[in-house]
Amino acid sequence: MKEIKPQGIITPVLTTLTDDEKFNPEAYTNFINKLIDAGVSGIFPLGTNGEFYAFNNEEKLEIIKTAVKAVNGRVPVYAGTGCVTTKETIEMSLKVKDLGVDVLSIISPYFVAVSQDDLYRHYSAVANAVDMPILLYNIPARTGNNIDFKTVKKLAEHKNIIGIKDSSGNFDNTLKYIENTDPRLSVLAGSDSLILWTLMAGGSGAISGCSNVFPELMVSIYKYWAAGDIAKANEAQKKIRPFRNVMQMGNPNSVVKLAANMLGNKVGPAREPSNCTNPAIVEALKKVFTLY
């Protein structure tokens, strides 16, 4: 297993669709090229912004294959393979292992109520069964569970578990991952409003949904921070607040997709029932775009 440290701004890339909701590989390749040209540090197919929940396994494999081919080794590829059950997560992860991805991102089981012991057994079983770098994905608002820092600390015994993306929006939760688990683990911001603060606290980067819309701006937060220019990094961080506010007017990743389309990226609709066509959101986005 090759060593990799997740860092920088990683894009959970939007899954491009045709008007009749079929995967559009040509548009996907073009969009990935645009993101890499903008300086992102990784491409992440089938995250929340990639609508992982909307595709069957056959479609997921095609999407991942297309991403790997489009990236062509220029940056690491992180693929979302988390499912509700441990068995299905392992099966999906093993299928993806041979496709050329660098890291598996595994969301905690969703819908089903799980304890911290359940989460420990789940991730341990996956780590033992799949010899690949694994990034844990914590998003309690969507899964109904929060991966406790004590559970993460125990899971660090598996050397192929290399970090965690925290989309809890709770900065204290992120701090616990940074301060009280294992310094070997990379902690990535999953809430774009907390990127700079996560970096300053010892995190290594972000998986940034907003980078689908404003890739250069999001990359600049990391670059300014890395150069020690905190004032400019903070200025860039503040610029995304108006857009973040509009995201809260609908399903956030559907608003991101709408915004990307409005800026001329041919990413297509979100799969129903979550496609965003609300005229109020369209008008709000038009106002936001005048700020950039």
From TrEMBL:
<keyword id="KW-0456">Lyase</keyword>
<keyword id="KW-0220">Diaminopimelate biosynthesis</keyword>
<protein>
    <recommendedName>
        <fullName>4-hydroxy-tetrahydrodipicolinate synthase</fullName>
        <ecNumber>4.3.3.7</ecNumber>
    </recommendedName>
</protein>
<keyword id="KW-0963">Cytoplasm</keyword>
<comment type="pathway">
    <text>Amino-acid biosynthesis; L-lysine biosynthesis via DAP pathway; (S)-tetrahydrodipicolinate from L-aspartate: step 3/4.</text>
</comment>
<comment type="similarity">
    <text>Belongs to the DapA family.</text>
</comment>
<keyword id="KW-0028">Amino-acid biosynthesis</keyword>
<dbReference type="InterPro" id="IPR005263">
    <property type="entry name" value="DapA"/>
</dbReference>
<dbReference type="GO" id="GO:0008840">
    <property type="term" value="F:4-hydroxy-tetrahydrodipicolinate synthase activity"/>
</dbReference>
<dbReference type="Pfam" id="PF00701">
    <property type="entry name" value="DHDPS"/>
</dbReference>
<dbReference type="InterPro" id="IPR020625">
    <property type="entry name" value="Schiff_base-form_aldolases_AS"/>
</dbReference>
<keyword id="KW-0704">Schiff base</keyword>
<dbReference type="InterPro" id="IPR002220">
    <property type="entry name" value="DapA-like"/>
</dbReference>
<keyword id="KW-0457">Lysine biosynthesis</keyword>
<dbReference type="InterPro" id="IPR013785">
    <property type="entry name" value="Aldolase_TIM"/>
</dbReference>
<comment type="function">
    <text>Catalyzes the condensation of (S)-aspartate-beta-semialdehyde [(S)-ASA] and pyruvate to 4-hydroxy-tetrahydrodipicolinate (HTPA).</text>
</comment>
